[in-house]
Design goal:
By secondary structure, the chain is an alpha/beta fold. The protein is 38% helix and 22% strand. The strands form five sheets. Strands 1, 2, 9, 10, 11, 12 and 20 form a seven-stranded mixed β-sheet that branches. The structure holds flavin-adenine dinucleotide. Flavin-adenine dinucleotide (FAD) binds at residues 10-16, 33-36, 41-43, 56-60, 245-246, 274-275, 304-305, 351, 402-403, 409, 437-438, 444-446, 449.
Length: 462
């Protein structure tokens, strides 16, 4: 056993890194134990044949949230990463149908919508203005640990309860926009392998965020953000060990005592787990109450899908994000970061989002076969003079690489889960145990995971 008790952070994903940096900056003795070989988890960088790819994330839709996270660390985001604002943000192509384009500029986007339906542009502008006003009022809740009705009351937002209780599809229906437009606006639900009827109303904020706050990539990749956070934490004195998988959390009298890696038992005075709460309760703690475990097992999960990382020679009219909605089957996505970030010229990624249910039924061999099918399709090749896969990942690969619970990235953000509350930062079962990361409030973007790390660390210090 070690001689002094420290705070151990399990996992160096976005949530763990933000928590470690926050705690170290407040003078805590912090040790980060990360099972893989590098920081970032799903948001890490992948380098193959001297080409750098983002393993998972490709777009930042909440710059303000990420800035808040860095502010809380006493750091300026812009001093650490160079954000590049996107003008032509994404397009959704329907098989045998029109293409819907979303630009940074609201008027340009609305003008495009007018070509798809009479008056659609004006309807869209009204919709975006309405949801942005709601977003502005609800924004403080983003920085509140596990906000509930009391937080709504505190921020004088109780009148927004009906909005919060609605599904994304109900909110989009109120806009009266043609369905091909509402489908394009709810494309992020396709990415999560869910229906807009199950998705929370909060996803309606995305178009407003795009037009009012902008959408961004990072020069060099979104994976430069966790690298920056790791540096901030190290500069503040946090120690990092890679290749250090935590196998067990030891407790006594309902409180954490130590963590066990393959070869060490480390005494702790607190733990922030960036491993999924499901893995933490079911695998690391081992003796969690059955009722709670059953509740965790029922959470709807989100698969990270399948991806091919490509070395490409792009044509001049390439697009940053091309979503493709076939008549049947899953949505596809082609990502070309070089369109916005010349440092990543020559790279592209073909992403195949799938539902967790599909991923589990298909198994690893089915996932690999599906990725082969996507690579063989012709639609995405039109952007390239040449394209060659240099790496591939299916959900099962990512599950092994990042110790993911049932190879899933987190509980998917459904309306029901938002209402019942995501997993809280402070464990209700074990003293001294806290959770950071996408499974906790506020959710599953890179910025949200960073916010979650700060909120978890704050709770620990309370
Ligand atoms: C394909 C894909 C596309 C995405 N696109 C976007 C996007 O465009 N924009 C966006 O904002 N977000 C996007 N995301 C989501 C974003 O990447 C995640 O929400 C975020 O990175 C999750 O961070 P996290 O802190 O929850 O932890 P994770 O990334 O899951 O990291 C957890 C870390 O803990 C480690 N760990 C787990 N168990 C143990 C253990 N027992 N011992 C030691 N270490 C352990 C893991 O190795 C890992 O490093 C995407 C994700 C994927 C997969």
């Amino acid at each position: 056993m070690g001689t002094s008790k420290r705070i151990v952070v399990i996992g160096a994903g976005m949530g763990g890194l933000a928590a470690a940096a926050f705690l170290a900056k407040r003078g805590e003795d912090v040790l980060v134990l990360e099972a893989s070989s590098k920081p970032g988890g799903l948001a890490s960088l992948l380098t193959v044949e001297q080409l750098t790819f983002d393993l998972g994330p490709y777009i930042l839709l909440d710059r303000a949230g990420l800035e808040w996270g860095f502010d809380q660390l006493g750091e300026n985001l812009a001093a650490h990463v160079q954000l590049v604002q996107l003008e032509d943000i994404y397009q959704v192509e329907y098989e045998d149908g029109p293409t819907v384009q979303i630009h940074r500029d609201l008027a340009t986007t609305a003008a495009g919508f007018d070509r798809l339906g009479q008056g659609a542009g004006e309807q869209y502008i009204r919709f975006v203005e309405r949801v942005y006003a709601i977003y502005t009022r609800l924004r403080p809740l983003l920085y509140t640990a596990n906000p509930g009705p009391r937080a709504l009351l505190r921020y004088r937002a109780l009148d927004l309860a009906p909005f919060l209780l609605s599904s994304l599809s109900a909110i989009l229906k109120q806009s009266a926009l043609p369905h091909m437009i509402t489908d394009a606006l709810s494309i992020w639900t396709h990415i999560a392998g869910q229906e807009a009827t199950e998705a929370p109303s909060l996803l309606a904020f995305v178009p407003a965020l795009i037009h009012y706050n902008g959408a961004y990539v990072c020069r060099g990749g979104i994976g430069t953000i966790p690298i920056a956070l790791e540096q901030v934490a190290k500069n503040a004195g946090a120690e990092f060990r890679y290749g250090a998988k935590v196998r067990k959390i030891h407790c006594a009298q309902g409180a954490v005592q130590a963590v066990e890696t393959g070869d060490e038992l480390i005494e702790v005075k607190g733990i922030v787990s960036n491993a999924s709460p499901m893995s933490t309760y079911m695998h690391l703690l081992g003796q969690s109450p059955k009722r709670y475990v059953r509740k965790l097992q029922r959470l709807p999960l989100q698969s990270p899908g399948v991806a091919a990382y490509l070395a490409v020679q792009s044509s001049s009219d390439a697009h940053f994000l091309r979503f493709r909605l076939p008549k049947q089957g899953h949505c596809r996505l082609l990502i070309q970061p070089g369109v916005a970030d010349p440092s990543r010229d020559g790279t592209a990624r073909l992403l195949g989002p799938v539902s967790q249910e599909w991923a589990e039924q298909a198994g690893e061999s089915g996932q690999q076969a599906y990725l082969d099918e996507l690579i063989a399709e012709q639609w995405w090749r039109s952007d390239f003079a040449q394209a060659r896969p240099v790496a591939r990942r299916v959900a099962a690969d990512l599950g092994r690489e990042f110790s993911l619970f049932r190879d899933s990235m987190n509980p998917v953000m459904t309306r029901r889960l938002m209402l019942s509350g995501r997993i809280s930062h402070k464990s209700r079962l074990v003293n001294g145990l806290y959770f950071a990361g996408s499974a906790t409030d506020p959710g599953q973007w890179v910025s949200f995971a960073a916010i979650s790390g700060i909120l978890a660390a704050r709770e620990l210090l309370c």
